[in-house]
């Protein structure tokens, strides 16, 4: 990955869009201000890893908001 670091808060209405070009795709996250990840051919495994990490993060957030029974550890 070419270096850049940015931080943004996801909101429930955050737009996510995939754009397809001749030799690459972009995954755009955001609205007025967006982050666009460019993936060339040969990088599909990186996108799969990103999707896996996003799934793990979503499950963690759901666990944080799931009420536990009284007295449960």
Q: What oligomeric state do the depicted chains represent?
A: single chain
CA gyration radius, whole angstroms = 16 Å
The general outline is elongated
Helix content: 25-40%
Note the beta-strand portion. 25-35%
Element string (H = helix, E = strand): EEEH
Say how many strands there are.
3
**What's the pLDDT, averaged over the residues?**
90
Number of helices: 1
For the sheet with most strands, the description reads: 3 strands, antiparallel
List unreliable stretches of 5+ residues.
Answer: none
Structural class: alpha+beta
Kindly report how far apart the N and C termini lie: 41 Å
Strand order of the largest sheet: 1-2-3
How would you portray this structure in words?
This protein has a domain at 16-64. Helices cover 30% and strands 26% of the residues. It has one helix and three strands; from the N terminus they run βββα. It has one helix at residues 44-65, and strands at residues 16-20, 24-30, 34-40. Strands 1-2-3 form a three-stranded antiparallel β-sheet, covered by helices on one side. A hairpin with a 3-residue loop joins strand 2 (24-30) and strand 3 (34-40). It is elongated. 0% of the residues are buried.
How would you summarize the topology of this molecule?
Elements: E1 16-20, E2 24-30, E3 34-40, H1 44-65
Antiparallel strand pairs: 1-2, 2-3
């Amino acid at each position: 990955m070419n270096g850049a670091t940015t931080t943004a808060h996801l909101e429930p209405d955050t737009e996510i869009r995939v754009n397809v070009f001749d030799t690459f795709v972009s995954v755009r996250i955001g609205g007025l201000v967006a982050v666009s990840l460019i993936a060339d051919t040969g990088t599909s495994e990186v996108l799969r890893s990103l999707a896996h990490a996003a799934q793990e993060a979503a499950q963690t957030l759901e666990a944080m908001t799931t009420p536990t029974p009284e007295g449960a550890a």
